[in-house]
Amino acid sequence: MWGFPRQTQKIKFSVLSKDDLEAIHWATLDVLETTGIRIHSEKCVRILDEAGCTVDHKNHIVLIPSHLVEEALRKKSRAIRLCARNPKYDANLDSRHVYITTDGNGTQTYDPNTGQRRASTKDDIAKSAIISDALDEIHIYWPMVSARDFPGHIRHLHDLEACFANTEKHVTFETTMRPKEALYQIEMATAVLGSKEELRKRPIISSLHCTNAPLQLHGGCIEAALEFAKVGVPTMFFGMPQPGATGPVTLAGSIVVNNAEVLSCLVIAQLAYPGAPVIYGAGIAAFDLKACMRAGGGPEHGLTGAALGELARYYNMPSIVGGFVSTAKTPGAQATYDKLTSGFPQIFSGCDMIAGIGLLDDCTTLQLEEIVIDTEIVKIVFRLAKGIEVNDETLALDLIRKVGPGGNFLAERHTLDHLRKEHFIPVLTDRRSYEAWLKDGAKDLVKRAKEKVKTILEKHRPDPLEKDVVKRIGQIIKRANKDLSP
Amino acid sequence: MKKEIVNKLKDSVVSCDVEGAVKTAEEALKAGVDPVEAIEDGLAKGIRVVGDRFGAGEAFLTELMIAAQAMKQAMTVLEPAISKSAKATKKAPAKVMIGTVEGDIHDIGKTIVTTMLAVEGFDVVDLGVDVPVETFVKKTIEEKPDVVGMSALMTTTMLKMADVIKALEKKGSRRKVKVVVGGAPTSKEWAEEIGADGHGGDAMEAVKLTKELVRAS
CATH second-level architecture of B2-88? Predict the structure, then answer.
């Protein structure tokens, strides 16, 4: 499955100039060489120490010389294919397509029956996975919430089980804080595919690892990433400095902080496993200095996302950026404008993956309806980005001559042939007459989305896992339950 | 074999294949298919499928209109072959006369309603746009439609709808027909105010309303 085509020709859009990109790169090298990164992992520090970095062991600070960064940028593999349980959903990160990824790691859900906000469950993952599986505009599924009805030490294995069981699409996750847990996740993916060799060839999972702004790496998190890198599972390193709090208030400064964190992870991964597939990640949203909360739906998030996508392309790396995020607590006006403004620049810039659709309250709360609403927004933005195609066929001179003054184009073959390409075809957007809308119950957007969700959940059945795979996964989780128990 | 051809007629309408529909209609006559059966079980069923899909929001108006073209052109092949006795027993469809009122040249809404009425099997007389009050009255007397539909897109021209109704009353023709109105500035309230029999908020509703009025009369 191809994502939405990246628009490279028609509408010129970029957030950073080539000079800007170079300035950011040089500034980042300076930070890595002179300020350094704090790394809470003996293993990672040793890798860097042996490669020639300057290490302050007492404070866990490593200074990374620029030649190691340049070397890592040369070593990494560019071609990354995020494979899927069903190969028709393989997502090829070829810098020519944009893939829409669900938002992930929420902790709360508006209960589909009661409407009340409550702790998220495994069933919420199942339902949101089915909806994402059904919608063509969603390419990659990230467990949208955590299975909080299971104990912490095996919670994320249950997350993964619910993903495999309810979507045939690629699964990415961002929850692994221990290398040992990574091994179980790898084992589960192996159970689905049959062998480790097959997993290396067809990685049906990828793992996202957040850095810890400013300029710190969590030991368990990065060591877990290395376990994935070891078996060829793509890893994403995702910076989240918040301008004003954990990064400079200036967006450029926070971009440098993000870049230093991500590039240091890249260096570690390429030193440990040369050629490891690494995806560049960023979700830089301002820190609201009045509300004292992250402003995920702010325009800054859109700008920095586009900028980081451009920076990743400058490094010849695929990117995953946050976007289509909102701090609104319920679907509606704010959610819609937040998501639109925090998401459209990334599409215009052509970031490889954009994650954020479906959650509210700054990536924390699942409302199933929001998944279909955001899908509609995404489709609208892609139509905008596609621009206007001008050629003989679209100029339609023969047709204009044929129809002539006073005629109409309603029943022309040309209309039918080009309609789907030329027009955004709404699913939820109301364009009916007032009377038709009234007669249909005067439903607002959320009510219409609710009906769509209901239809999908009633009708859509992703291909189930084979029985022995289900059994093997069950056994793996059982083993992990004992092994990972605190 | 005959059944296959009838099904093929239906499919060519469903797939908006105008040429295919005409060719299959010719094929049907050669194979000795009853033209009434070819129309009713083939073409009409096909257009019903597309109409239903359109009503459910699945098909585009363009598909419905091209499918209607396919039906219409295949009909011109089949109709001359219908025997006189079959023609005599066939109930004439209800007639709708429609036009955009004087001073208003907006065409598209009326054209859509016209097509959809034809799809539903109505005999539609389209008076065109910028139709003077007198023409509405004269044509009503001549054509004897069951329903007269008026369209307007502007608040200034919609006033002509009231004039047409008044003129029909003057000529004693108002009671013989149902009058319906539509177009962006019109509303249910407006229809009541000028003494029309109904208002269609969009093409779908206009067709539904027309069907109801014909059934009731």
Answer: Orthogonal Bundle (1.10)
In this prediction, the answer to ipTM > 0.85 reads no
End-to-end CA separation in angstroms for chain B: 42
Q: Do B60 and A416 count as a contact with CB atoms less than 8 A apart? A: yes
Instruction: Locate the chain B residue with the closest alpha carbon to A413.
Output: B66
Report the CATH architecture of B95-216: 3-Layer(aba) Sandwich (3.40)
Predicted confidence (pLDDT) per residue in A327-364, tens digit = 999 999 999 999 999 999 999 999 999 999 999 999 99
Return the higher-pLDDT residue of B81 and A463.
A463
Q: Is B99 helix (H, G, I), strand (E, B) or coil?
A: strand
Residue A480: count other Cβ atoms within 10 Å of its Cβ: 22
Query: Each residue of B55-69: pLDDT tens digit?
Result: 888 999 999 999 999
Torsion sign, CA atoms A40, A44, A49, A54: negative
Whole-structure pTM value: 0.90
Asked whether the CA dihedral A333, A335, A338, A341 is positive or negative, the reply is negative
Q: Does residue B84 carry a pLDDT above 80?
A: no
The CATH number given to whatever domain includes residue A353 is 3.20.20.480
Cα A140 to the chain's mean position, in Å? 8
First to last CA, chain A: 41
Size of interface A-B (CB pairs under 8 A): 43
Nearest CA among A324, A284, A265 for reference residue A69: A265
CA angle A356, A362, A363 (to 5 degrees): 45
Cα torsion for B98, B104, B106, B110, to the nearest 10°?
-10
Look at B66 and A436 and tell me if their CB atoms are within 8 Å. no
User: Smallest Cβ distance to B202: which of A408, A411, A433?
Assistant: A433
Q: What is the mean pLDDT of residues B21-43?
A: 94
Count of residues making up chain A: 486
Question: Using CA atoms, how far apart are residues A205 and A193, in angstroms rounded to an integer?
Answer: 11
Q: Which residue has the tokens 């990374």?
A: A64
